[in-house]
Amino acid sequence: MNWPTYRAFYMWLRNYDVFIRLFWSIAPGFIIEPVVLLVALGFGFGSFIGDINGQPYMEFIIPGVIASYAMTSATFECTYNVFFRMDFRKTYDSILATPMNISDVVTGEVLWGATRSIITACIILLVAALFGIIHSPLALLAPVFAVLEGIMFASMGVFFASIVPSVYSFNYYFTLFIGPMTFFSGAFFPVSSFPETVQVISNIVPLTPAVSLIRGAVSGDFAGVNVVISLLAVIGVSAAFYIATLFSMKRRVME
């Protein structure tokens, strides 16, 4: 198997150019939607729920919104878009006729997915700052953690795209995995509020350590966060799926 080279940057650049050309068509999905969710949950549910762990509900959910939308940004980019480039538009066939290899393509896709995550994280963080609910300079670490999270979910997304038989198969991925994980990761409710059996599930889903890291950064308090374990979990899952994707995508394009 060929390992990725510097040419992976050109795959990233190709996706960046498309993103810039289509910016105003796709902006509502990663700018308006998370802001609406933040306002609706923060001011809507927040008026009924009150404080959680000593924080107003609006402040509690900001890290969850950042983490969940960083996840979905990378996931949508690296599932549907990757599949369409690979199977429908035959973009990969054209790219692989150049000196680039499939590992360059996979790496460029993963890096672009992570880029989408950090763009989304920065926008939500900026909106939260404008609301006056960011109180710690450590919040600047949130986009850094969002990049790591983006690499993780981008790797998972490209892997799934490389093994599904049709675009409709993504319904299983989003309905059975991405959707439930959003609610069971502690993004919008404390994990401790779930029954013990559900807590076990919550503690092993990939989004949970990302939420914990971003929550610690935004609040400026890592006291309740095992930073080392959370980082190792995110990096470990990222590495496992990235390596698996290099093999699965090579097998897919050779079929």
From TrEMBL:
This is Transport permease protein. Keywords: Cell membrane, Membrane, Transmembrane, Transmembrane helix, Transport. Belongs to the ABC-2 integral membrane protein family. Its main location: membrane. PANTHER family: NODULATION PROTEIN J (PTHR43229). It comes from Dehalococcoides mccartyi. Pfam families: ABC2_membrane. It is a multi-pass membrane protein. GO terms for molecular function: ABC-type transporter activity. The keyword Transmembrane applies. It is found in: Cell membrane; Membrane. One of its GO terms (cellular component) is ATP-binding cassette (ABC) transporter complex. InterPro entries: ABC2_TM, ABC2_TM_bact-type, ABC_2_transport, Nod_factor_ABC_transporter.
